[in-house]
Design goal:
- The chain has 225 residues and is mostly beta strands.
- The protein has two domains: 95 residues, no CATH class; 111 residues, Immunoglobulin-like, CATH 2.60.40.1200.
- Helices cover 7% and strands 44% of the residues.
- The chain contains two helices and 18 strands.
- The strands form six sheets. Strands 11-12-13-16 form a four-stranded antiparallel β-sheet. A four-stranded antiparallel β-sheet has the order 15-14-17-18, with no helix packed on it.
- The longest helix is centred in the C-terminal third of the chain and has 8 residues.
- The chain is elongated.
- This is Copper amine oxidase-like N-terminal domain-containing protein.
- It holds the Pfam family Cu_amine_oxidN1.
- Keywords: Signal.
Length: 225
């Protein structure tokens, strides 16, 4: 007898590429990239025994039935329910983002980078009604003089790039109690600086800073507001 499975609150077992997890005789075991144990099991499996309806509409997709449980490919289920799925081959794991629920914000990259013994650190990013301020520390551990190229700084917010504005910055640091790194830093010198941009609506930004002809890139850096 062909059964119809109504998908409302759907509880479905995970199936990747036609391979599922069944309660049967174990014929092989192996360790996944996550450090957990996976099993290969022998089982009486019925393909396409179970029909599927989603919100009253018949759906054509393969299904597998074993021991009273119906298995459907995870990506198919996600698509049918309007969700998205990201499969990580390296860790053999999947992330599902439900429809109507925002995906989690990407994790920020490291806030310190070192290239050729020159270290650049984003200490914090703060925004008020006047400006967005990037607090930076430069450390020159090389054996030569280096030049921070703050005039080449830029940020990306909501897909829009904003370049360094000389006049906008000059008005905010000149003759004021604001840290400003020198145009050149001798070996062994640590210097702090604040770089100003106009306010943005995004809660995270990507930052590109320059020092000694190298780009230092920082992604998904939170903006304190």
């Amino acid at each position: 007898m062909r059964k119809k499975v109504m998908v409302g609150f759907l509880c479905v077992s995970v199936l990747f590429g036609g391979v599922g997890v069944y309660a049967g005789t174990i014929i092989n075991q192996y360790t996944t990239n996550r450090g957990t144990t996976a099993t290969v099991e022998r089982e009486d499996i019925h393909k396409n025994r179970i029909g599927l309806e989603v919100n009253g509409k018949t759906v054509k997709t393969d299904s597998w039935y074993a021991n009273g449980v119906t298995y459907i490919p995870l990506r198919e289920v996600s698509n049918l329910l309007g969700a998205t799925i990201d499969y990580n081959q390296a860790t053999q794991s999947a992330k599902i983002h439900s429809a109507g629920q925002p995906a989690p914000a990407p994790a920020p990259s490291a806030t310190t980078q070192t290239i050729n013994k020159v270290t650049v650190t984003i200490n914090k990013v703060v925004q008020d009604a006047d400006s967005l301020k990037i607090y930076v520390t430069y450390v020159n551990n090389s054996s030569k003089e280096i030049r921070p190229a703050e005039g080449l700084s830029r940020i990306v917010a909501n897909g829009t790039q904003y370049d360094y504005d000389l006049n906008f910055n000059f008005e905010r640091y000149y003759d004021k109690d604001v840290p400003k790194a020198s145009d050149s830093l001798e070996p062994g010198v640590t210097a702090q600086s604040v770089i100003f941009f106009k306010p943005v609506s995004s809660n995270t930004i990507n930052i590109v800073l320059g020092a000694e002809y190298e780009d230092y890139r920082f992604n998904n850096i939170p903006v304190q507001k």
